[in-house]
Specification:
The complex is a heterotrimer of chains A (295), B (243) and C (368).
Chain A lengths: L1 H28 L6 H18 L4 H27 L4 H22 L5 E2 L9 E4 L2 E4 H23 L1 H11 L1 H6 L4 H27 L1 E2 L5 H14 L4 H21 L8 H15 L16
Antiparallel strand pairs in A: 1-4, 2-3
Chain B lengths: L1 E10 L2 E11 L4 E5 L6 H9 L6 E6 L2 E2 L5 H6 L2 E4 L11 H8 L6 H14 L1 H5 L10 H13 L5 E5 L7 H16 L3 E6 L2 H7 L2 E6 L2 E6 L1 H7 L2 H6 L11
Parallel strand pairs in B: 3-8, 3-9, 6-7, 7-8
Antiparallel strand pairs in B: 1-2, 1-4, 4-5, 9-10
Helix pairs in contact in B: 3-6
Chain C lengths: L2 H6 L3 H23 L2 H27 L6 H16 L2 H7 L5 H5 L4 H24 L3 H21 L1 H4 L14 H20 L1 H11 L1 H6 L4 H27 L9 H14 L4 H28 L9 H16 L13 H9 L21
Helix pairs in contact in C: 2-3, 2-10, 3-10, 3-13, 3-14, 3-15, 4-7, 4-8, 4-13, 7-13, 11-13, 14-15, 14-16
Chain lengths: 295, 243, 368
Amino acid sequence: MNEFIINTLSLGSLYALIALGLVFVYGILKLVNFAYGEYIMTAGYGLFLLGTYTPLPWWSVMLLSVALAALMSYLTELIAFRPVRTKSLTAMLVTSFAVSVLLQNAALLFISPRSRAVQLPAAFNQSVALLGVTTPLRNLLTIGTTVALLVGLTLLMKYTVLGIAMRAASDKFSTTRLMGVPANLVISVAFIISGLLAGVVSVFWVGRSASVDPLIGFTPLLIAFIATVIGGMRSLVGAVAGGYVYGLLFNVLSITLPASVINYRDAFMFLIVILFLLLRPEGLIRGSYTEERVG
Amino acid sequence: MLTVNDLHASYGAIKALHGVSLEVEEGELVALLGTNGAGKSTTLKSISGVLRPLAGTVRFLGDEITGRKPEAIVKKGLSLVPEGRDIFGSLTVAENLRLGAFSSYERNRYQEDLEEQFALFPILKERFNQPGGQLSGGEQQQLAIARALMSRPKLLMLDEPSLGLSPALVDQIFALIETLRDRGTTILLVEQNAERALEIADRAYVLKNGLIKFSGTPQQLESELDLASVYFGGEEGMGEVTV
Amino acid sequence: MSVLERILNGAPGRFTVVALAALLLVGAVLVNAFAPFVWVGIYTYFCVTLMLVLGLELFMGNSGILNWTYIGFVGIGAYSASILSTDPSLKHMGVPNMYPALVNLHLPVVPALLVGALVAAAVAAVIAWPLMRLSDAVGVITLFATLIVIHVLMTQWDNVTNGPRTFFGVQQFTTIWIATGAAILTLVGTHLFRESSLGLRLRASRDDRFAASAMGVSVVRVRYLTFILSSFVAGLGGGLWAHYITSFSPTSFYVGELFVLLTMLVVGGAGSISGAATGAIIITVLREGLRQVESYLNNSGVISFEVYGLTEVVMAMLLIAMLIWRPTGIVGGSEWRLPLRRKQAAAAPSPEPPAEPVLETEAAEEAK
């Protein structure tokens, strides 16, 4: 039972970070960013390239890779999203889809279609005993890092002007600008935070498989969708809650589903998502605004 | 101080302004009157940069600000209190006020500015740590004005500040606008409640169907024109008498 | 007045449709008579693709909603038609685990194609009603999730689809003539739809959802019917594609292929039939060209590594550039017109309002 709790907390933490990164941009720009998974991929290749071809110590490889994801997120905002921001939501969606395809295929073209092994410090996978359970250190690190990040982000959002401005912008974007808050500033910061979270996610995600490939971002993107739908698209707290709920759901389904239908787990998850959206489009935690519904 | 010249604006295919020109001098309280849909709010939105005008110019303190970003216009000292108050419901009163000071924040001046707002709006001190969404309509309007004042505006634009408030609260808001005027704040006031606005205004413009139909002092407006019938009443079937 | 004149003087889009159909036919004749054999294949493929883009435009271009599930319905049509048309003995070899009942089902190709399209439309009819009520982010994620569900079913249900493995042994039925004929029929069909009352109502709801519902247009119902129609075209196109390519796997009906169709639609212009057609032509040519470059680079030994993904990189950059600088697409929302006729059209009040570009916002003037 303790093992189940630690596994679920660790998986839930990872999912919470994944969801949070997606919602940060959605909250401000109302953009479901399909390129989000590729920021995770970017950091993954950062780990691979810096870890393999430079003599840098592992901790600086990790920090640089996280920074690389943030940079990539910022660059996509600057080059692709900013010019289409005043156009329709569909135009932004198609742009994010195109950015996703572009980054994936750039990795295919310039690095390799095959997956690359990533060197992580051995301590990462070492087993430790806690509460009578032996678990990889990685799991505990995931939980610890998530808690630290959530505390940090909460402080940022609550006690800094920038945080207040970002909360205001996700509530009423136009009015926030009337306060003198530059639109580009809040949007860029949202993308940078989203990228940072993607980078941190990448360290732990890649840590699980110890390899990176061009399609590595797809599964986290799906996870982000499911978790944010469960938690509610509009609230950061909801995204975190959704991540943990999904982590729990995933582990429960993995244990309880018979082996013959385990391959359908993703389909099950998405059926749940669809039902959730139809029955409760605002998610578990209601944001300050409800999604527009037609009909 | 503010000069608007031949301003045209539209929402999609619908043209809302057909060449509006107006002026506000330093220290004045100018009222912009008209019925629903006359283009009053559109004028304010175009001046403040929320809406990009199709043609025409807006000059403020000698600089052309036409089509600039709203955040840049606020920084120049032109603040808008939007229609419907538009406070941030999920943010506390304190956070709303802090954002108001975003463009002109100076650490050593901030507390002083805050105290000034508390003197004008004592209720905000009481509600300081409550979310804006929990405030009553009148309190929200006070917060919206205080929030705009936190940016130390040289010109304050108020869009329908009395909308949806009870008569007692309307009195309070108009008294407050007078106080601000007496303290030397330049104000451009948009109102449907023409009678009340004319009581305190130095000059007035009347807007109809996206065009300025009259400009002058309140006395001229009252003597030269039968306000109710000509400007807000039947004539062209506009209906809706607001006086 | 001759028949031709009557046709040419009809609704604004009619000239475009006739011209496009004639072009397609002439193209097919020329390619068939003079071009190398490879070109016949490319042309056939192009016609089927054009049909699929037109089907995508049918719903997306007219409603402004990004329809992720479209490619899933292409797959449903492809699998259904192929299962029905393939000879039982071949099926038994190709899909060893197939349910015996399915193995024994057998139809000639044409009815099989129609049934495939109907299956796609039926699935759409069952699942789409609740989906059409959602909009914005929730709608996008739901449609995307639905595509994932369809894809998981295709890759996992190996009693039907052969799972992630290739489904092979399908007859080669789709010739250049059949593909051209199908594309022309789809052109005419989508044009008639646009001018029908349903099409007009859908476009009205795209341009202003609230005004449309105020005028008594049931947005959900109109979208629902069009979604089914669009899925029918997807299913039919999928069946034809399967009977041209003869072997395929679930990856052919996933995000990557949708990206190609979407790029065609956006590059050409998502608001019109001419746009969809222009995009299909340009992107087909571009893809073939880039493939040549890729295979040249890989075979010539100029560079030491294998080039993979170049086509997609270029297409994605093109798509982003179009969205930034010309979101209405090359054609720009309205149909092709003859230069001479444009003057007349400008002089006379147009019977239909100019099509608003899909990807432009209703609130573009709200300076963000």
